[in-house]
Amino acid sequence: MTTATISSAAWALMPNHVHLLIRTGDVPIATLMRRLLTGYAVRFNRKYRRHGSLFQNRYKSILCQEEPYLLELVRYIHLNPLRAGIVGGMPELDAYPYTSHSAIMGRSTKSWQDTYFVPAHFAKAVDRGRELYREYVEQGVGRGRPDLVGGGFRRSSGSWIEPAGENRVRPLPVSGLCPECQKRFEEE
Predict the structure, then answer these.
(1) Rounded to whole angstroms, what are the CA distances from 124 to 30, 121, 186?
(2) Per-residue model confidence (pLDDT) at position 58
């Protein structure tokens, strides 16, 4: 698998789990996760001279198909350390090395992190996109955990199912976007 076939849009490493928002391209998510999780487990077991399973459950995945849902999901992922009390506020989050937020903000470098994908949803110029993205994330601090219903299909028992009825794919309200992005969302 080459890095050209996948792209990391957002991630957060938490004490007991990880959130990943990745664009898989032509690599199936099952293949990517098998390689990632197996590789990590093998390295961890060798380092700590242990054997057996490392992870408790299978990973959970959703297919994110709608832009407003994507942006809300990025914000949710990046605010996890703040909501968990790991960092004390936005300035700490900006520099926190265990989320892609710090890379997107230009405070850390990860060769595998796409630092342009998220800001490009807010403005054409990277610096302005970062500024508007940060404002968007900060607006979510006091809101609590969002209800991330809709925005894609859910993976269940090895196949993709479309949420039914009330949970059917629908965009979430998004605020704090640049006028161009806001107009695009309102037209959809």
Answers:
(1) 33, 8, 19
(2) 80
The pair of three-digit structure tokens given for residue 89, joined into one six-digit string: 């506020």
Distance (Å, whole) CA 13 – CA 32:
17
Which residues form the domain of 18?
3-187
The angle at the Cα of 130, spanning 125 to 131, to the nearest 5 degrees, equals 100
Lowest pLDDT segment from 18-22, 66-70, 94-98, 115-119: 66-70
In the chain, how many domains are there? 1
The CA-CA-CA angle for residues 111, 72, 40, to 5°, reads 40
First to last CA, the chain: 35
**What predicted TM-score, i.e. pTM, was given to this entire model?**
0.73
What is the percentage of the chain residues whose pLDDT exceeds 70?
A: 72
For 116, the token pair is 């342009």
Q: Which pair of structure tokens corresponds to residue 28?
A: 């199936």
Asked if residue 121 lies in contact with residue 71, where contact means CB atoms within 8 angstroms, the answer is yes
pLDDT digits (tens, 9 = 90+) for 7-36: 889 999 998 888 999 887 788 888 888 888
Tell me the C-alpha distance between 43 and 52, whole Å: 12
The phi and psi torsions of 82 (rounded to 5 degrees) equal -70, -45
CATH number of the domain to which 179 belongs? 3.30.70
